[in-house]
Amino acid sequence: MCRYDKYEAFIFDLDGTLIDSMPGHYAAWLQTAADFGFDVDEAWYHTRGGSPTLLTAKSLVEEKSLDIDPAVLAAHKTQQFKAIMEDHLEILPFAEVARHFAGKKPMAVGTGTLTDIAERMLEKTGLLPLMDVVVGADQVSAHKPEPDTFLRCAERLNVAPEKCLVFEDAVFGINAAKAAGMDVIDVRVTDIGLD
C-alpha cells in the first residue's frame, strides 16, 4: 500500500514545495530594499519562508525601525515580483505527486502568496489544471503558522482536515498543518515515494 492511500485529499504549499520561486522573491525584496534605502540579506530572507509578503514587510519595518507603511512596502515588493517572476519558476520534484494523483484525489494549493499571483505561477508551470482549489493569503485573515489557510483548503475541498495530507517546505507551514490537525510531509527531507 502506498503511504498516500489513506488520505482523501492533498494540500500543497506553493513556493519551495511545488515551484522554486524563492530566488525571484528574494530578488524582489533586494530591489525593494534598494528602492527604499535599506539592506536585506539572504540569511534573513530564509527565516521568512512561508510568511506572506505583508507579514514580512511588518517584520522588516519593526526590525529595522523603518519609517515606511508596511502595506506600501509589501505592495512595492509584490509589483517587483510580478515583473520578474516568470524568469524564476522552476518545478520541484513533489509536483510529480500532484501529477500522479490528478483526477484521483482532490487537491489544493494553500499558500502565503496572493491568489492571483499563485494562480499565474501555477498556470505558467502547467500545474494549475491539477488543482481543484487555490487558497492564497488574501483569502484568510490569519496566516501560517496559524491553521486557517489549510483549514480553508479542506473546507473548499469538502474533506475533513484529518483526512488531508499537507506537503510543505517551511517551519511556518509545517506548524500550520499540525495546528489544522493534518499530517504533513516535509518535502526538504522526504522522498516522493510513489513506488
Q: Could you describe the 3D structure shown?
A:
- It is a single chain.
- Helix 1 packs across helix 4 (70-84).
- Helices cover 42% and strands 12% of the residues.
- It has 2 domains: 9-21 and 90-186, HAD superfamily/HAD-like (Rossmann fold, 3-Layer(aba) Sandwich), CATH 3.40.50; 22-86, Orthogonal Bundle (DNA polymerase, domain 1), CATH 1.10.150.
- The longest helix is centred in the first third of the chain and has 15 residues, at 22-36.
- The chain has helices at residues 22-36, 42-46, 53-63, 70-84, 95-101, 115-124, 148-157, 171-179; strands at 9-12, 19-20, 90-91, 107-110, 133-135, 164-168, 183-186.
- It has 8 helices and 7 strands; from the N terminus they run ββααααβαβαβαβαβ.
- The chain starts with 8 loop residues before the first strand and ends in a 9-residue tail after the last strand.
- Helix 8 (171-179) links the parallel strand 6 and strand 7 (183-186).
- Strands 5-4-1-6-7 form a 5-stranded parallel sheet, with helices on both faces. Strands 2-3 form a two-stranded antiparallel sheet.
- 44% of the residues are buried.
- The model has no long low-confidence stretch (mean pLDDT 93).
- It is of the alpha/beta class and 195 residues long.
- It is globular.
Compact overview of the structure:
By secondary structure, this protein is an alpha/beta fold.
User: What percent strand?
Assistant: 5-15%
Which stretches are poorly predicted, pLDDT < 50 over at least 5 residues?
Answer: none
Distance between the termini: 10 Å
Largest sheet: 5 strands, parallel
The class by helix and strand makeup works out as alpha/beta
- Supply the CATH superfamily name of the largest domain: HAD superfamily/HAD-like
**Overall number of domains:** 2
Assign a percent range to the helix content.
40-55%
Just give the CATH class of the largest domain.
Alpha Beta
Mean pLDDT score, rounded? 93
What is the number of strand segments?
Answer: 7
CATH topology (fold) name of the largest domain: Rossmann fold
Read across the widest sheet, the strand sequence of neighbours is 5-4-1-6-7
What does the overall shape look like?
globular
Instruction: Provide a count of the helices.
Output: 8
Round the Cα radius of gyration to an integer and report it.
16 Å
Secondary-structure element series: EEHHHHEHEHEHEHE
**CATH architecture title of the largest domain:** 3-Layer(aba) Sandwich
